[in-house]
Amino acid sequence: MKKLIRFEFMKVLKKKSFLCAVVLMMVMLVIVPCLTISENNWINEDGTEITGMAAIHAKRDSLENSSCDLTTEKLQSVITNYQSAYADPASFIKEDGTVGSWINNAAYAKYIQSDSEIKFLIDMAFTSEGEAYDYYAIGNMNPADAENFYENRMEKVEEYLNMDYSYGNYSETDKEYFMTRNEKLTIPFHYEYNTGWNKLLGISYVSLMVIALVVCITLAPIFSSEYQTGADAILLSTKYGRSKLIVAKIVSSFLLTSVIYVLGMFILTFVTFLIYGSGGADCSLQVLNFLAPANVNLLQTYLYVLLAGYFMCLFMQGITLLLSAKMSSPFPVIICTMVFFFIPAFLSYSRSSRTYNNILNLMPAKMAAAYTALTKYEVFHIFGLKISYPVMLILIALLVSTITLPFAYKAFHKHQVA
Questions:
Q1: 3-state secondary structure (DSSP) of residue 284
Q2: Cα distances (Å, whole numbers) of residue 293 to 183, 184, 212
Q3: pLDDT band at 226 (very low <50, low <70, confident <90, very high)
Q4: 43/62 Cα distance (integer angstroms)
Q5: Is 15 within 8 Å of 217 (Cβ atoms)?
Q6: What is the C-alpha to C-alpha distance for residues 336 and 320, in angstroms, rounded to an integer?
Q7: CB proximity list for 397: less than 8 A, separation 6 or greater
Q8: Among 69-83, 227-241, 318-332, 379-393, the least confident range
Q9: What is the pTM of this model?
Q10: What are the residues whose beta carbons fall under 8 Å from the beta carbon of 219, sequence distance 6 or more?
Q11: Fewest CB within a 10 Å sphere: which of 24, 126, 323, 411?
């Protein structure tokens, strides 16, 4: 059996289509994090603005010792610094010596920039009810109000759950479920420099889609190429052609999927951390998504993304092998898997049906956005059990990847040679 598995595995590795697909994947997963470099900017102490890698290095150097818990004292400090910037007349003097209506870059760098991400969270917490975000909320606060930060966040969660939605409102049971989850969050939230993790989570969606595409291209010929070349007539007539050979093809598919996935995510992670650094693993998820109900840090968030992404690839592996066992050549297999995978990514959410939206969220293309699963307020009710959306993603992928394999086995086993 080991020789059969090794043979099937090496047979795929030697294909030019596999080599081209993997090389293209590697190049794209290097390019994707590099494309984010131009998004970065930083203000120096003298008020000059820098961008790109210079900005990344400056921010990293400035915030490398910023690790802290968002206690009342820390929040008060951020509020006081912000208000000090607006209280200082020098903050409004422009380069030409005239007085402007906005604070200048030097004042922003001195008072606000280093704590801008924490300022955003404070603005979120103290934005008036019914408004999405008030950039100036922090300027109208008394520093003593900081002690209400976490209480205000809970009120924001409650406000979100009590809103009217055209596709259906949250039931009282679901509201209670999510309020309880939020009450169990570890507070105070922990903050530290996190740009590397932030970027990594942000680009994981497109990266996982690229990896899944390569998995489908790689596995499409597993069974169908035997029909196309006529080798099925020989293979299926051998002693183990309808038994051990099929198992070997399926096992080698698992190995190929795993190799492609590990290679792809390693390159993505390595390049991203090479650019931005790996600091911020212990930062609370709520620093990136203020209302996220998951009690995890950024390292745990990314580990979930890795797990969900792998199961998504197994999901697509199962679909691809099933189609490969039923179709006469790899090309239609690739087309069908691409349609199945990519079409849901372009479908809009319903304004009238939460059920439709939940089904859409369980499609592989949506699974690629695994990071957002930890930020959503969705729960599934199955046989009286409440199953959170992140857990449901894994269960569905596991179920589909398991169910499709026996059908793929049976399709090739019962194939009649023409």
A1: strand
A2: 9, 9, 28
A3: low
A4: 11
A5: no
A6: 9
A7: 308, 311, 312, 314, 315, 364, 367
A8: 227-241
A9: 0.91
A10: 253, 256, 257, 317, 320, 321, 324
A11: 24
Per the DSSP assignment, residues forming a β-bridge with 191 are 68
User: Read out DSSP for 135-174?
Assistant: TTGGGG--GGGGGGHHHHHHHHHHHHHTS--TT-PPPHHH
Of the candidates 184, 404, 213, 220, the one whose C-alpha atom is nearest the C-alpha of residue 315 is 404
What tokens were used for 370? 């695994």
CA atoms within 13 A on the CB side of 266: 6
Longest CA pairwise span in the chain (Å)? 90
Cα angle value 26/307/28 (rounded, 5°): 15
Length of the chain: 418
Are 63 and 114 in contact by the 8 Å Cβ rule? The answer is: yes
pLDDT confidence tier of residue 239, bands split at 50, 70 and 90: low
Q: What's the CA gap between 52 and 241, in Å, rounded?
A: 57
pLDDT at 74: 96
Tally of CB atoms within 10 A around 131: 8
Closest residue by Cα to residue 322 from 245, 257, 409, 252: 409
Place of tokens 């070997």: 248
